[in-house]
Amino acid sequence: MAIRIERDGKVATVIMRRPEARNAMDPDSAAALTEAFIELDRDTATHAIVFWGEGGAFCAGWDLKYAQAFTDPERFESEIVQGLAFPDGDGPPPRGPMGPSRLEMGKPVIAAVEGPAVAGGMELALWCDVRVMAEGAYFGVYCRRWGIPLIDGGTVRLPRLVGQGRALEIIMTGRKVEAQEALLIGLCEKLVPRGQARLAAEAMAQEIVRFPQGAMLADRRSAIAGHGLSVREALVQEWAGGVGTIASEGAAGAGRFAGGKGRGGDFGDI
Q: Where are the alpha helices (DSSP H) in the chain?
């Protein structure tokens, strides 16, 4: 089984395990990965998700042994162009070539990156809300060498994280971006010792699920959906999405504060 789910309370960890290919995706594992995230997004008992690759690699991209099969024009047209193309109109898209890269998740997803997250693997990490990288981990558009473009959101999400100029330099050169640089340029949010990415990501997820979920999710939605909007439009959206949680959660939280909880910025006893 290439994809496994492990649960710890309200946190679920999705594990990629194709060690023979450094967790590179093939069609079956991409489909299974998509189904795993759809299942967890619907699961009301799961409030946050960690995404990790077993065996010292996050994901080495698409398994090029399978890509060779698409030199057949008819198969390429039927399985890739037609099978994964966006539909006309506003219908939901099919899964991305790498799997869940087109899903709009309703809860936080944290990438725990060890070793390579390159080509499509980098795009899967960019799809997540947050990236926790271990020392020795790295990103890179390694598919640049083989004439394979980024089609799982890399050209969309990378400029939003690091800016257009830096993103273009990384995309056009295909160079290796090591974890320390990734942290400096905003391509990851936390750097941890080698072998600790999963533990650190799961600890972050457990911290997130402690909080009242309605307000946290409203803020998450607003931050994601604000891209491309004017300041006024984004403010209107923020207000509409968040004001309802004040009565449902905020009043109770204010009562706990009035009773002595969380004073002095304490996050431990809330």
A: 27-42, 64-67, 73-75, 82-84, 120-127, 154-162, 164-173, 179-185, 197-209, 213-225, 231-245, 251-258
Domain range 3-209, its CATH number among 3.40.50.720, 2.60.40.2470, 3.90.226.10, 3.30.1300.10: 3.90.226.10
* Neighbouring C-alpha atoms within 13 Å toward the C-beta of 155: 6
Q: Which two tokens stand for residue 31?
A: 């489909």
Q: How far apart are CA 123 and CA 140, in angstroms?
A: 10
How far is residue 23 from each of residues 1, 117, 243, measured CA to CA in Å?
Answer: 12, 9, 42
Please give the torsion angle defined by the CA atoms of residues 117, 226, 35 and 143, in that order, rounded to the nearest 10 degrees.
-30
Please give the model's pTM, rounded to 2 decimal places: 0.93
pLDDT band, very low/low/confident/very high, at 250 (cuts 50, 70, 90): confident
Q: How far apart are CA 231 and CA 237, in angstroms?
A: 10
Which residues, in sequence order, are CB contacts of 194 under 8 Å at separation 6+? 114, 134, 135, 136
List the domain boundaries for the chain.
Answer: 3-209, 213-259
How does pLDDT run across 184-203, given as a tens digit for each residue? 999 999 999 999 999 999 99
- Each residue of 80-110: pLDDT tens digit? 666 788 887 787 888 999 999 999 999 999 9
Interstrand relation of 176-178 and 116-118 (parallel, antiparallel or unpaired):
unpaired
Q: How far apart are CA 52 and CA 81, in angstroms?
A: 29
